[in-house]
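Subject: Sanity check before I submit

Could someone independently write out the structure tokens for this chain? I want to compare against mine line by line before I put it in a report. The sequence has 284 residues.
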Amino acid sequence: MAETKPTAAVKATSVQPKKSSNAISWIAPIVCIIAGYCIWRFILGSDDGFKTPDKSGGFWPKHHGPKDALHGIYEGGIIVPLLIGMLLMVIVFSIERFLTIRKALGNGSIADFIRKVQYHLANRNVDAALSECDRQRGSVGNVMKAGLRRYKEMISEGGLSTDQKVIAIQKEVEEATALELPMLSKNLVFLSTITSVGTLVALLGTVLGMIRSFAALGESGGGSDSSALAVGISEALYNTALGIGTSALALIMYNIFTTKIDSITYGIDESGFTLTQSFASQYK
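---
Independent answer below. Compare away.
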């Protein structure tokens, strides 16, 4: 009976899952909606901003005669606080994504970093390549560092073939990538959702404003109540303007962030290719 040659087992991945809290994803929308109502009710709807304020107050005071355009936004109706809250959400999640992606980009150019690592690997100086990863301090550097650690282990591993070693390095890079990429795209769903929902909410406010306009026109018999008609039209237009502005800002920020993430993803893919090709050529 022929003897089978034992094959050395590949060590488990050294990449550890990142611990991160995503409390902002459910706290921020609630806080933004509440803040949107407070801005609409107490700033845009302050008594001193109207010629005929509703002194009784309440959830939705019926003020009339805004003294300026800012207080005129209050006449946009109860949909306005929701639109303001969505605008605040766009701002909050844009800042949060900017800080996260800025950290993920790391220090310096990704292309320059990969070229430096390629140079060190060509000279078989893995420690210098690891030092470059420590200086880069971004997602590409993190993935490259995980791959380089396995790369270094495979150099001295005698129980595996070159192809098995390359597969082990590639697997390490893939596992590190799987932990890095979700952190980059997290919370972008809010921006993409607001891009479309903001316009629909604005359309709802526009329709309610036009209903109010035609109701006022019908009550006046097509004649004299121009004030109520104007309020209904302004309600429609304020909602339209706020909704379009919010959706446009969300779309712009979403495209900016996805472009940045694509550049990081490309750098990560190039890192994995660099490691496997270098090892296959240097340690046949």
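---
OP: Matches mine. For the report I'm noting this point. Residues 24-282 form one domain.
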